Structure formats: structure tokens, C-alpha cells
């Protein structure tokens, strides 16, 4: 089924609820207010509209990376997109760069990294749980067709990595201090390692464990992202917000002489 890459579309109903759908020949989308054949969705295409047989209008979209990560299947909780985009900035990523990541989880951050370094770059991602890796590979391949990701099954601390080969390291795992030594060795001098940590106690433990390694603490931050409800003439911050996701801890590598 052509038209939309990978057959992936995002449908939005009148209440703004979003549904990620993989189109297939003969398929039918089920909404609680009726059904729509996949063929009709394909024909409407991104930016178009369809109606269920009960008259519910649905808009058809090519999912953005943010929408995709928030709606894809998850085996582990993906890095929140607002934080993933901040990680790209803190890592100072550009096309052609090489990045090291652990753990792969559901592949959310992997997608952000792969898109930032582009087809000429490379992401080496490590995941110790096979069923997480399987889900991540499926998630990534359904959205991103470029061949710039190498998936590795296993713990990062047990990987044999080339020294000073990576332009950036992104860590989203429970105990990043366990991998800090190997990750620091694999990082190029003057480049960045960023860890995503839900608890401040984890951030403090990581900073303490970095002592003695060629890493200097650059920044600790949270990404604020306050959504507003706008229904003219009324506008106010949404009553339900994502209050806290994680702390980002960024280190820069010293040159080891
Ligand atoms: C929170 S999830 C990562 C989510 C991912 N950033 C995403 O956006 O989908 C953390 C993952 O790290 C994996 N993990 C934990 N310790 C690890 C290690 N030492 N090496 C490799 N993977 C590890 C876990 O199995 C889990 O899947």
C-alpha cells in the first residue's frame, strides 16, 4: 500500500484524540463512533479528511516524530519528546556524527538521534533486554527507513567500544553510573554525554560517580513545557500538565593526555 511511507497515518477525531494506524489492504479502522476502510484513509491522504460510517469526522496526518513516539507501542517508557529534543541540543548533534546510546528501550530517543545525525551519521544503540530490543527495532523500522542505526543486544558496560569514536553519548537507564567509565572512554574529547534521570537522587549519584573520570559536569536542567488551552476568546494554561519527566545531566569530556 503506497502513498504514505510505511503505511503509517495518524487520525485525529473532533475531540483531538489521536490514533496511530498502519494501513493495509482490506483493513478497517474502528472508532467508537464508527468505522472507516483503510482505502478511504489512503485516498484522503495526509492533510485530508474522512468520515466514519456514523458521521464522525477524522483528519488524516503523516505522524510527526513527536506524535509517533507518544503513540507507538512501548516496551519501556520512551524519553519524553520535549526532553529528547533538548538532548539533541545538549549533545550538539549534526548530520554525519556518530552517537552512542543506552538503553534502547522502545526506540524513542533512538529515532530522535538517528534523525539528527541523518543518513550519513551513525547511532550505536545498546539494550540488555531482548524483548525491549525487538520492540524498539519494530518501532524504529516502521518510522525511519535510513540505514544509520546499529542495534546491539547486551549491556553497554560489557560492550567493546572503539576509544574516542563518538561525538555524543545519550544515556536513559536506571543506573547510568554503571556504564559511565566505558561511555567516557568511547567519547571524543570536548564532546558531550547526557543522562536522562527521573529522580534527583540518581542525578546526584551520577555526578558523584563521575569524579575521577575525564568528565566535567556542564549542566543539570529540567525542560519546562507548559501547554495552553486556547478556545477563543478564552485562553489559559491547561489544567492537566505533564509536571515532571526527568532531569538532564550533561558532562563534557576532558582530553586525556
Ligand atoms: C527507560 S528505558 C529507555 C527508553 C528509551 N530512551 C526510549 O526512548 O524508548 C531504559 C532501558 O535501558 C535498558 N538498560 C538498563 N540498563 C542497561 C545497560 N546497562 N545497558 C543496556 N541497556 C540497559 C533497560 O532494559 C530499558 O529497556
Automatic annotation (TrEMBL):
EC number: 2.1.1.220
Broad class of enzyme this protein falls into: transferase
Domain of life of the organism encoding this protein: Bacteria
Record keywords: Methyltransferase, S-adenosyl-L-methionine, Transferase, tRNA processing
Location of the tRNA (adenine(58)-N(1))-methyltransferase catalytic subunit TRM61 C-terminal domain: 62-232
Coiled coil region boundaries: none
Catalytic function, reaction form: adenosine(58) in tRNA + S-adenosyl-L-methionine = N(1)-methyladenosine(58) in tRNA + S-adenosyl-L-homocysteine + H(+)
Pfam families: GCD14, TrmI-like_N
Keyword Transferase: yes
Role played: Catalyzes the S-adenosyl-L-methionine-dependent formation of N(1)-methyladenine at position 58 (m1A58) in tRNA.
PANTHER family: TRNA (ADENINE(58)-N(1))-METHYLTRANSFERASE (PTHR12133), TRNA (ADENINE(58)-N(1))-METHYLTRANSFERASE, MITOCHONDRIAL (PTHR12133:SF1)
Protein name (Swiss-Prot/TrEMBL): tRNA (adenine(58)-N(1))-methyltransferase TrmI
Source organism of the structure: Thermus aquaticus (strain ATCC BAA-2747 / Y51MC23)
Amino acid at each position: 500500500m503506497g502513498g504514505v511511507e510505511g503505511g503509517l497515518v495518524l487520525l485525529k477525531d473532533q475531540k483531538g484524540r489521536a490514533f496511530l494506524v498502519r494501513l493495509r489492504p482490506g483493513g478497517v479502522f474502528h472508532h467508537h463512533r464508527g468505522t472507516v476502510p483503510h482505502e478511504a484513509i489512503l485516498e484522503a491522504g495526509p492533510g485530508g479528511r474522512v468520515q466514519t460510517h456514523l458521521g464522525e469526522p477524522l483528519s488524516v496526518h503523516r505522524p510527526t516524530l513527536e506524535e509517533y513516539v507518544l503513540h507507538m507501542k512501548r516496551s519501556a517508557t520512551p524519553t519524553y519528546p520535549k526532553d529528547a529534543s533538548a538532548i539533541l541540543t545538549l549533545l550538539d548533534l549534526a548530520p554525519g556524527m556518530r552517537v552512542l546510546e543506552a538503553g534502547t528501550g522502545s526506540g524513542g530517543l533512538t529515532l530522535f538521534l538517528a534523525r539528527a545525525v541523518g543518513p550519513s551519521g551513525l547511532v550505536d544503540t545498546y539494550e540488555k533486554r531482548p524483548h525491549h530490543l525487538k520492540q524498539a527495532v519494530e518501532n524504529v523500522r516502521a518510522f525511519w527507513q535510513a540505514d544509520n542505526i546499529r542495534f546491539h543486544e547486551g549491556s553497554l558496560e560489557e560492550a567493546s567500544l572503539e576509544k574516542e569514536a563518538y561525538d555524543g553519548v545519550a544515556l536513559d537507564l536506571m543506573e547510568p553510573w554503571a556504564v559511565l567509565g566505558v561511555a567516557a572512554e568511547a567519547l571524543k574529547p570536548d564532546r558531550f554525554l547526557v543522562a536522562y534521570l527521573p529522580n534527583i537522587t540518581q542525578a546526584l549519584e551520577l555526578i558523584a560517580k563521575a569524579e575521577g573520570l575525564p568528565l566535567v559536569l556542564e549542566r543539570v536542567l529540567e525542560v519546562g513545557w507548559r501547554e495552553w488551552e486556547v478556545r477563543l476568546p478564552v485562553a489559559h494554561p491547561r489544567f492537566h500538565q505533564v509536571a515532571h519527566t526527568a532531569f538532564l545531566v550533561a558532562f563534557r569530556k576532558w582530553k586525556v593526555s
